Request: fold
Amino acid sequence: MSKKFIVPEENYYTKDHEWAYVDENIVTVGITTFAQDKLGEIVYVDLPEEGNKVTQNEDFGVVESVKAASDLLSPVSGTVIEVNDGVMDNPGVLNDDPLNDGWLIKIEMDSEKELANLIRAGEYRKLIEKES
Reply:
């Protein structure tokens, strides 16, 4: 029996298990409940500074758990306009609530066209079902 992971319909997803919530040209980024489950207890997060540029599919930070370290890949290209310092101060937030309080960064995206490279909830569910 596979575990049920929360996959909000309104989000976009990467095949590397980041979620992206789009509000006009602002993209809020985090890790999925599936990613958190696979990593286990997250103990450290390294995020970029506000004003940094990020590029789609390139790393922007790292999450470390008691099991492994994992690069965070940006779902879109753009400029980091906000960083969730609370997650860096208390990485445990990602263990409890990776979809809300555990958001990582907000990006002012350069081009909406890049959203076409991401997957939607239905496709993401199929992906994690295969990987479970």
